[in-house]
Structure to design on (176 residues):
């Protein structure tokens, strides 16, 4: 009889959620683009390539506990002032996040989701560049925690400027 009570309690506790949950529902390429506007002449250019990388992120709430997160990467390579190539990818995913308070939810969307998307985005960019006839561009790891921290500081600075709070303005000026 005690086995019935224990097994019943165990089954009941397994049916109830045990705190916050995070799931990866779907990963996909949302947009992909490659341009080599000065090919084939650019292949003969001598000089050090200048590489610029831009990173962007968008979050879209799809349902109560479902979010689409998009990570955009744009690589622009110029040689002697001429554009050799422009490679862009927008890697996206649908993530299930339930049971998080607003602050932790924001942090998960700003750090964990882009950390999952980044390897897929870099693989797509790398493939575009090499298929375009250019040497591979090894992309370095990105510290999304540090980027998220910086975005929080920028948000705090904007709020302080709008609110006119002198103490918050003084604190942000010290970090700049």
């Amino acid at each position: 009889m005690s086995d019935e009570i224990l097994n019943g309690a165990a089954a009941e506790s397994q049916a109830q959620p045990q705190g916050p949950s995070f799931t990866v529902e779907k990963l996909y390429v949302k947009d992909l683009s490659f341009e080599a506007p000065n090919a084939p002449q650019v292949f003969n250019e001598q000089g050090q390539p200048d590489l610029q990388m831009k990173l962007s992120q968008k979050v879209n709430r799809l349902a109560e506990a479902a979010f689409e997160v998009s990570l955009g990467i744009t690589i622009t390579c110029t040689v002697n002032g001429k554009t050799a190539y422009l490679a862009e990818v927008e890697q996206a995913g649908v993530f299930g996040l339930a049971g998080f308070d607003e602050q932790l939810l924001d942090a998960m969307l700003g750090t964990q989701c882009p950390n999952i998307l980044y390897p897929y985005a870099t693989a797509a960019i790398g493939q575009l560049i090499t298929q375009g006839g250019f040497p591979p561009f090894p992309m370095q790891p990105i510290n999304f925690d540090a980027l998220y921290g910086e975005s929080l500081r920028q948000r705090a600075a904007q709020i302080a400027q709008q609110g006119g709070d002198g103490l918050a303005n003084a604190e942000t000026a010290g970090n700049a």
User: Anything to note?
Assistant: The first strand starts at residue 21 and ends at 35. Confidence is low (pLDDT under 50) at residues 165-176. Residues 102-131 form the longest helix (30 residues).
